[in-house]
Amino acid sequence: VQCFNEGDLVWIHGFHLLILPSLLTRRIPMAKIGLFTHTPFPSSEIFRTLWCREELLRGMLNADQVGFHLFEYARHFLTCCRRLLGLTYGMIPDLNGSHSLAIENNGRQVVVTSIHAGVEPPILNQFLCQTSTVEKTYEIRKQFAGKVIFCAIDKLESLKGIPLKLLGIERFLQRCPQWVGKIVLIQVGISAFEMGDDYMKTKNQVTSMAANINMRWPGTVQFQECSESEMRLPQRMTLLRAADVLMVTPLRDALNRIPLEFTMAHLDVLTEEGRNDGRQRGICILSEFSSTSRVMRGALHVNPWRISHIASAFQQALTMTQEERIRRATCASEFVTHVTTQRWALAVLLNLKAVQKDSNVGRSGVGLGLGYRILGMDSGYDTLDMNKVARSYKDSRSRLIILDYGGTILPNDNTDCFTRYQFVHKLRTPTVPDNRLLSILKELCSDNRNHVFVVSGKERHSLTSTLGDIPNLGLVSEHGMFVSWPAKKAGKRIWETTVPEQDKSWRSLAIMIMEVYSSRTHGSYIEETEMKVLWQYRDADPEFGYQQSRELEDHLSNVLREYAVDVLHGGVKEGGYVEVRPKGVNKGFASMHIIKNMAISNKIDFSLVIGDDHCDEPMLSVMRQIGRRAMEAKSFNDRTVLTPLPASVTPVDVSSTDPFVSSRLQTYTATVGKKPSASANYLNDVDDVHELLECLNRMSARDHQFYSSIDLTSMTYPIAGSGLSGVKKTGSVQFLSGSNSETITANVTRQVSLVSGFLSSEGVNPAKVEKQTSNTLADYLNTVEDDDDDDMFF
Fold first, then answer.
1. Burial 555-591 (b: 16+ CB within 10 A, else e)
2. Looking at residue 381, what is its pLDDT?
3. Does residue 403 contact residue 450 with C-beta atoms inside 8 Å?
C-alpha cells in the first residue's frame, strides 16, 4: 500500500491470498487489482462444503480480475458464484475493443481470464548449454547405459500419485517380462514437511513399494528424496535431458512446468542429428488431471486411477515408431515455443489494464470482516438528505409522493424461498401495517397539497384490506395494472385498469405450458394473481432452473405472440421467475399514468419516489427522467450544463407528462438499502423511510400553524403591486401575479402588524388588512411563541 502510485497494477498470486483483494481495495480503491490462482479451483459440490464459502468468493470478487490457468477451473469458479451467490456472467466489451468474460457483481464487472503459463526457452537453453549440465547428463546416461530411462519429479504427498505410478510399472513388467532389465524409473521425491502426516505416510509407502519392486526386479526403481533447494532448475534440466520419457501422474495438480521443461530439453529430437542418436526419447506420459494435459497435445494422456492405463502407456512409449514420436514431439513443442512466461504475464496484465473503472461509477464498501464487498454505484449516490427534502417539501404547493409497499413502508416478507412459497399458497399470513405506519400515512394524506400513492405488486383485495380505509390515499396494485384514485372519504374502493380490458384466454395457455415445466423441474411452482401468471424456480437447482426458464420463455413467446402480453424473465438474482402479464404494465408506466390523470389544479412541483427492489426500477427511472426534463427546461434559460443521467436509468419517453409538471419541479428518488439502482439516493432501511415521512408530516403541521414574515419574503413567487387585486379579511393574504395566473395563499396567524410593513413595501394598502389585535408591544410579544425546534427540520 505504501509503494502504490496512481496507475499501478496490483497482481496477487496464490490461493493463500484469496481475501487480500478486500483489504487492498479498502486502502487503495482506485487501484486495478488482479488475482491469479495457480491451483485447480474445486467444483461447486466440493466448494459448497466450506464453512466460509461465501466469504472466500466475496474476497475474490473484490478484485477487478480473477485469473486461472484453464477454463475448466474458471468454469468451476463461475458455477460457484452462480449457485452460492446467485450472480450472472457473460461477455462485456473492454478498452481494447474486444470482449471479456465477466461476472456481474453488485453493479460492477469482475473480469475472469484463463491463460496457461509457459516457460522461457532462452533461459532453459542457457542451462542446457552449460558444461556442467552436459557432463552430468553424460554421467547419468553412462550409469544406466543400455536402458530406457523413465524420469519423475514429484513432491512426496498423496495427490501426486506416486504409488499409482509404481503400481503401473509393476503391472507392466508382469505383463511384458521381456522389458525386465531394459528400463529404469528414476523417481525423485521432494520433501514436503509442511504436509505433516500425509508426507510421512506417502514417503513410507513409496519407500516400501520401491523396495518390493527392486526385490523382484533389481535396479528397476531408483528412488531418491531431496529437498526443494537441491532440485532447482539446473538440476532438473540435467535429469530431464538425460531421461527418455517423463512421467507426471498426479491425482490433482496445480501448475506444473516440468512437462514443458522436458519438451524444451528434447527439442533437438526434431533435428536430423537428434533423430539419429538412437534414443527413443521426447515423450511425456501425463495424467488427465494435470493442467498441462490441456496444452500438451502430443503427450500420452492416462487416468492414474486406472493402473492398466499406466501400464499401457509404458508399453506404448517403448514401442512407438519414430514417425509417431516425431509428430507428438512437434505438437508438444508448439505450445512451449509460442506461449512463454513473458507472453503469459503480458496477456494477463493487458487484460487487467483494460478493465474499465468508470470515473462516473463510484465504489463503495459495505459489510464487515470477511463479509466486506464492493458496490459499483453512480458517483454522488449517497444517503437521501432529509433536510433538503424537507426544504423542498415546505416550499412546494403541489406534491406527488409514490411509495412502494413491501420492503419500503413495510418490512419485506419474502426473506427466503420457503416464506415466499408459504405466502403464495396462503399458508402464512402476511405482515400488515401497524398503527404507527397507518397514522403516518393518514397525516401525510391529510395535507391537501399532497397526492400520495402506494404502488405494489400485491392484488387489489390485499391492498384494500390493509390501506383501503385511509382517506386521500391512492393505491396501485399488481405493478400498475389497477389504480384506485384518492377519495376524501373512506369507503368502498373503486378500481380501474390502466390498460384496456382484453382477452384473458392467454392465461389458460400460459398455465398449461408452465405446468409441463413444473412437472419436470423440482422446486418450481406456479403463482397466479388476478392479472398475471408466474413460474417460480427460485427453489430449483440454479443451473437447471435457469436452463428450463430460458426454454419456457421461448416457448411462451412463440405461443402467446398473438396476444397483448409481455413475457418477462427474472434471473436468479431477482428471485428466479418467468412472468406473463398484460403488455406495457409496470410501475414506470403506472407513475406516468398517475401524473397524467390526477385531478389537480396546480402543476406538480415536488415529487418523492421510494422503492426497494428490481420491480421498482422502472418507476425510479421514469421519475428521474421527468425530473431531468424539468431541470433541462430551467437550465435552458440559465444556460447551465447538466451532467448526463447514469447508465442505470433506462431511457423512456416521458414527454407526455410535460403539461402536468412545473418547471420548478424538485424530484427525489431513493431505494431502500445501499445497492446499485436507478435512484439518485438511498435510505438504509424501512425505519429511515418512516422517519422521513414523519419529518414531512412535521413540516406540514408547522406550515399550517403560521407564516412568518421571513417565510413570506423567502417565497420565490413575485408580488407585483399592479397585479394585486386585494387581500381577504379571513386572515389569509392572496396575491395574483400579473405574469402568470398562479394564485398563492398564505395563512397568516401571527399579528398583521408584522406583515403590514412588508405589504406597504410591495405597494399593498395595509388598510385592507384586518386590524391588529395587540395594542402595545408587550401585548404583541406575549402572543409570540418561540420556535426552538427549527433546527430539527434544517
1. bbeeebeebebbbebbbbeebbbbbbbbeebbbbbbb
2. 78
3. no
Buried/exposed 196-220: b ≥16 CB within 10 Å, e otherwise: eeebeebbeebeebbeebeeebeeb
pTM confidence score: 0.73
Distance CA 709, CA 733 (A): 12
* 240: three-class secondary structure by DSSP: helix
What would the pLDDT profile of 453-467 be if each residue is shown by its tens digit? Answer: 999 988 999 999 999
- pLDDT above 80 for 342: yes
Per-residue H/E/C for 392-431: HHHHCCCEEEEEECECCCECCCCCCHHHHHHHHCCCCCCC
Q: What is the pLDDT of residue 589?
A: 93
The candidate with the shortest Cα–Cα distance to 352, out of 105, 36, 76, 106, is: 36
3-state secondary structure of 497: strand
Q: What is the residue-averaged pLDDT of the chain?
A: 84
Residue 705 — pLDDT band, cuts 50, 70, 90? low
Q: Which amino acid is at 481?
A: M
Using N-to-C axis directions, what is the helix angle for 542-559 and 506-519, rounded to 10°? 150
**pLDDT band, residue 726 (cuts 50/70/90):** very low
**Which three three-digit cell numbers place residue 316?**
506404448
Q: By 3-state DSSP, what share of the chain in percent is helix, strand and coil, each rounded to 5?
A: 45, 20, 35
In DSSP terms, which residues pair with 247 in a beta bridge? 285
Cell of 437: 405506519
pLDDT at 634: 76
Instruction: Compute CA distances 71 → 92, 207, 302, 352, 499, whole Å.
Output: 17, 37, 20, 17, 49
> Cα separations (Å) of 647 from 379, 573, 586, 655, 678?
11, 19, 20, 20, 8
Selection from 188, 152, 160 nearest residue 250 by Cα: 160
**H-state helical runs in 51-118:** 53-61, 71-85
In sequence order, the 6+-apart residues with CB closer than 8 A to the CB of 440 are 690, 693, 694, 697
- Look up residue 58 and give its amino acid: R
How far apart are alpha carbons 92 and 103 in whole angstroms? 9
Please report which helix (H) or strand (E) contains residue 695, including its range.
helix 686-705
CA distances from 365 to 11, 60, 475, 518 (A): 21, 14, 36, 39
Give the burial class of 483: count Cβ atoms within 10 A of its Cβ; 0-12 exposed, 13-18 middle, 19 or more buried: buried
Give the CB-side neighbour count of residue 660, counting CA atoms within 13 A: 18
**How many other C-beta atoms can be found within 10 angstroms of the C-beta atom of residue 626?**
26
How wide is the angle at C-alpha 281 spanned by C-alphas 276 and 286, nearest 5°?
A: 155
SS3 639: coil
**At 90, which amino acid appears?**
G
- Total number of residues shown for the chain: 794
